[in-house]
Specification:
The complex is a heterodimer of chains A (325) and B (351). With 325 residues, chain A is an alpha/beta fold. Chain A contains eleven helices and twelve strands. Chain A has a domain of 77 residues. In chain A, the strands form two sheets. An eight-stranded mixed sheet of chain A has the order 6-7-8-3-9-10-12-11, sandwiched between helices. In chain A, a hairpin with a 4-residue loop joins strand 1 and strand 2. In chain A, helix 4 packs across helix 5 and helix 5 crosses helix 6. The longest helix of chain A is centred in the middle third of the chain and has 18 residues. In chain B, helix 3 packs parallel to helix 6, helix 4 packs across helix 6 and helix 6 runs parallel beside helix 7. In chain B, strand 12 and strand 13 form a beta hairpin. In chain B, the strands form two sheets. An eight-stranded mixed sheet of chain B has the order 7-8-9-4-10-11-13-12, sandwiched between helices. In chain B, strands 1, 2, 3, 5 and 6 form a five-stranded antiparallel sheet that branches. Chain B is globular, with a radius of gyration of 21 Å. Among the domains of chain B are: 157 residues, P-loop containing nucleotide triphosphate hydrolases (Rossmann fold), CATH 3.40.50; 67 residues, no CATH class. Classes of the chains: A alpha/beta (325), B alpha/beta (351). At the A-B interface, helix 7, helix 8 and helix 10 of A face helix 6, helix 7, helix 8 and helix 10 of B.
């Protein structure tokens, strides 16, 4: 296997408060290959956005990386200074923020915002900048007249596509997306996802895609990482996760949304709510809500165990499972 | 249970639905004083919600579905058309007393449980206010008992403990249950639920959807469930109504419509729902356009710009709802009715 594009090792992020440090991301290990589409799935408050920001080195006080490394194209981003990061950002690794409604500057035209981004990271002439702006807008299916449009003149879906165009200005190796479709309607969501996937296959960049909606990425991602209470609880290929989820939480998530086809079946959801990360449960963090919890789950912390091609943080898959049963 | 609704009850014929609208229309004036621009948010909607029924109103943002909810809640006055609540026209209600009486029977549950509960008071504040305002016959002690009973009804248990909480101590799902408790406090006939689960986490949603069905089955409350999530509509609703750009384009029993959608827009909506169990490749459809802003519209089907089957007629004649299958109607010039649909007795009644 060639060296990975991105290697996250033992990454932990703490929110520092006066009374207690809240660990929002707890010892996360992740590997991403060139051109791979990885989706990080989890509920609100599980730390998925914090993890994303930690990978992109965008955290600000009171959040800080307390341990671990993020090696991107052979360089440990955690140790880089702001100036060095500047060379990587946007050129090699760009971020698409959650809500395009707020992420675009309402007082500047789309073209002016593109120019800002280009000038901050490269020297190009005005004509070159305009050519490139038109080119990336065309990539995402927006007519070139909109270079001079202001955000309010575009629909929600177009604004979100403009954000993606902006992230592609320098053809980066990695595009990080934080719920880019959450403000859109189903139809617009579907067409945006299709477009992202087509661009990815054409331009060959890798994607980390954060979402709370598992079914959204089901046809698009190569691998899924499920997060719960700051930890990865399952990492699997998308196919195997939907066919046979390992972790009880992944199984619960799959059973929580109604289907549009097939027989109508009763949904249970997952009882209870996620733990307070300031005071996480002593054992497995999912144990209070888990339908198959065992005695040891209340006191011992499970690791991420290998199970076939997948990994799951559950004693069901530990080496000692024979004794446990 | 039904007997306790007596105070504001109006006599209604046996088969009269809880709520019925006739050509309900709402236009908004845009721009300045001299502007001639009018946004057609809802045009000629005929909605029927029966006893013990959950009607799902489905559409994209901007389709007019929230405007319908506000019209039914009497937050907006309709531009034209009439709302009949248990057979009586609501447009004639003028006095504060009559309006209160109507609103007490048709409360709303809001989309965002984080901003619809006052954060400085205990969670019971809004629910207790509803009791005070709409059920003056209860004394203080009875109100306390009623609060506890309501919290138990919506699954906030142990109720005693929950009653003492502040909003920040509750999860989104619990807050939304408080929203339903507040709606139930007024002993409603019909609850208008505007996207009640869209802000909630996936693992919590099922609980709220189950609560809605439970309230229908146990208390006999009817509901208008507004959503853009067609899968959850299928899960809770008895009937479905699809809106596009201010027009009702299809309506009928939920299983019938989803199994056999007649309007091309319903078909598009259905095809866009991600279904992990389905083995399609991703490149099924690229860009399929966006819904139009309906400012000073000319006659014609509003979906024609995105419609793969549009014919000449669509650009100048607005299609009306036609029977397509038993109980199912669609507003489309091209769609073919099932044999015998016209004769089906349910068709006319089930608008």
């Amino acid at each position: 296997m060639a060296t990975a594009l991105l290697e996250v090792r033992g990454l932990s992020v703490d929110y520092v408060t006066e009374t207690v440090d809240v660990r929002a991301v707890d010892k996360v290990d992740l590997t991403l290959d060139n051109g791979e589409f990885l989706a990080i799935v989890g509920e609100s408050g599980c730390g998925k956005s914090t993890l994303l920001f930690a990978i992109a080195q965008l955290l600000s006080f009171p959040a800080e990386i307390s341990e671990g490394s993020v090696v991107f194209k052979g360089r440990n981003m955690v140790q880089l200074r702001e100036q060095e990061l500047r060379h990587l950002r946007w050129r090699d690794c760009s971020v698409v923020m959650q809500s395009a409604m707020n992420a675009l500057n309402p007082t500047m035209s789309i073209g002016a915002q593109f120019r800002d981004a280009i000038q901050a990271h490269a020297g190009m002439s005005d004509a070159e900048i305009r050519d490139r702006s038109v080119e990336v807008l065309r990539l995402v299916g927006i007519d070139e007249v909109h270079v001079d449009s202001y955000p309010h003149q575009l629909s929600g879906g177009m604004r979100q596509r403009a954000m993606i165009a902006m992230a592609l200005l320098f053809t980066p190796d990695l595009v990080i997306m934080d719920e880019p479709t959450s403000a859109l309607d189903v139809v617009a969501q579907r067409s945006l996802m299709t477009q992202i996937k087509e661009l990815q296959e054409r331009l060959g960049f890798a994607v980390i895609f954060v979402t709370h909606d598992m079914s959204l990425v089901s046809h698009y991602s190569d691998r899924l990482a499920v997060m719960y209470a700051g930890q990865l609880v399952e990492v699997s290929s998308t196919e195997s996760l939907f066919a046979s989820p390992l972790h009880p939480y992944s199984r619960g998530l799959l059973d929580a949304f109604p289907s549009i086809r097939g027989p109508r079946r009763a949904l249970t959801g997952i009882p209870g709510s996620p733990p307070d990360l300031g005071h996480p449960p002593a054992g497995c963090r999912f144990q209070p809500r888990c339908p198959v919890a065992m005695q040891r789950c209340a006191t011992e912390r499970p690791d991420l165990y290998q199970e076939g091609q997948s990994q799951a943080r559950c004693f069901l898959y530990s080496d000692m499972r024979a004794e446990a049963v | 249970m039904a007997a306790t609704y007596s105070p504001g009850a109006m006599p209604a014929p046996a088969d009269e639905p809880v709520l019925r609208t006739v050509d309900l229309t709402k236009h908004f004036h845009l721009g300045g004083l001299f502007s001639k621009q009018t946004l057609h948010a809802v045009d000629g909607a005929n909605i029927t919600i029966r006893e013990r029924e959950i009607l799902a109103l489905v559409g994209e943002s901007g389709s007019g579905k929230s405007t319908v909810a506000r019209l039914l809640a009497m937050i907006y006055r309709p531009t034209s058309g009439q709302i009949y609540f248990r057979g009586r026209p609501v447009g004639d209600l003028r006095s504060r007393r009559d309006l209160l009486r109507y609103r007490r029977q048709v409360p709303m549950v809001f989309q965002d449980p984080y901003s619809s509960i006052n954060p400085v008071f205990r969670v019971t504040h809004g629910v207790a206010r509803n009791l005070q305002l709409h059920r003056p016959e209860l004394n203080r002690a009875q109100r306390g008992e009623e609060l506890e009973r309501l919290f138990e009804t919506v699954g906030l248990t142990p109720a005693r403990e929950m009653l003492a909480k502040f909003p920040y101590e509750m999860s989104g799902g619990q807050r939304q249950r408080v929203g339903f408790a507040a709606a139930l406090a007024v002993q409603p006939r019909l609850i208008l639920a505007d996207e009640p689960v869209s802000m909630l986490d996936v693992s919590i949603r099922a609980g709220i959807l189950n609560l809605m069905m439970d309230l229908r089955d146990r208390l006999g409350v009817s509901m208008l469930y507004i959503t853009h999530d067609i899968a959850s509509a299928r899960y809770v609703a008895d009937r479905i109504m699809v809106m596009y750009a201010g027009h009702v384009v299809e309506t009928g029993p939920v299983e019938g419509v989803l199994a056999n959608p007649k309007h091309p827009y319903t078909q598009l909506l259905l095809s866009a729902v991600p279904d992990p169990m389905e083995k399609t490749s991703f490149s099924t459809s690229a860009t399929i356009g966006e819904p139009p802003k309906v400012v000073n519209p000319t006659p014609g089907c509003r979906f024609r710009g995105r419609c793969p089957f549009a014919i000449e007629e669509c650009s100048h004649v607005t299609p009306g709802l036609r029977p397509m299958a038993p109980g199912q109607m669609a507003a489309c010039h091209v769609a073919k009715p099932e044999p015998g649909a016209e004769a089906a007795p349910a068709a006319g009644a089930a608008i």
